[in-house]
Amino acid sequence: xxxxxxxxxxxxxxxxxxxxxxxxxxxxxxxxxxxxxxxxxxxxxxxxxxxxxxxxxxxxxxxxxxxxxxxxxxxxxxxxxxxxxxxxxxxxxxxxxxxxxxxxxxxxxxxxxxxxxxxxxxxxxxxxxxxxxxxxxxxxxxxxxxxxxxxxxxxxxxxxxxxxxxxxxxxxxxxxxxxxxxxxxxxxxxxxxxxxxxxxxxxxxxxxxxxxxxxxxxxxxxxxxxxxxxxxxxxxxxxxxxxxxxxxxxxxxxxxxxxxxxxxxxxxxxxxxxxxxxxxxxxxxxxxxxxxxxxxxxxxxxxxxxxxxxxxxxxxxxxxxxxxxxxxxxxxxxxxxxxxxxxxxxxxxxxxxxxxxxxxxxxxxx
Length: 366
Ligand code: PLP
Fold this sequence. Notes:
This protein has eleven helices and twelve strands. It has a seven-stranded mixed sheet, with helices on both faces. A three-stranded antiparallel sheet has the order 8-9-12. Strands 10-11 form a two-stranded antiparallel sheet. The longest helix has 23 residues.
């Protein structure tokens, strides 16, 4: 969490209910309104279009479930999505199919991790979605083109921008999207705070019923301190975006060159444009879970694409959708660099990586 966000959070942690009609409630409301204004301004949205939620996951759910319900009332059931979306989207779409009669058109995914087959968007659908950039590979997606095709077909369109906000420019009004999800902790804000940008029309039907806060889309007393902290973090992230991007791009290039030079057989997972600070490698034959443990033991925090469920390491659904073989996919490693990453950090990883992959490859062959 950025210091500016911690400071804002601490300053407003004692605020009362912003819906209260007493003076203290009105003060809290003013802080909330200002936070909404700042966030709207930074993301190209009107303040009224900014909805505070509890996470990126919740924003995705409110948008997809809500827009689906709005369209269902008009007799539409088709949902268009890529299987390489974040679980917050993939599982929601699967659930709509299992419980609410959705007919899903899953888009094909290229070997570079990009959603393809966008012609599917020419046919009107209940709701369609495309993320800005993938959270595992970092691959930037054709969200603009997809949004435009959806608008032309009259299909409500949702963008999961959770990985992108704070790293690349986002202008909601320039996009043909109906809704957009972001998450504060991705740009140095507090965990447990999401943003949903939602146009006035078509409006998602509420998925949670209650007091009608946040335009009825997210009932529940709003967390003013977290809203203010989110606004502070986003202000800083956007202000330093260009400078940080230049710095992080250099560091990422140093990391990629260093790793590929030292580890025979290693490759970058995708060759197209990726988010700043994203490096996703495949070390065929290595055991990804073991790589994480070995790196962790020397103070390097990394992640694989594989999900660990009930002690069984499975290949990531994203790599599967890209058609990556199991041997390559189980040896995936995702390294991300951010505002706190230094050249020394990068050199430490490069120094360790060969030994780590060697050990994890022996284990992978057992
Ligand atoms: N969507 C994407 C692309 C993400 O990367 C994440 C989290 O990593 C989410 C959604 C979920 O966000 P949250 O952790 O705030 O629920």
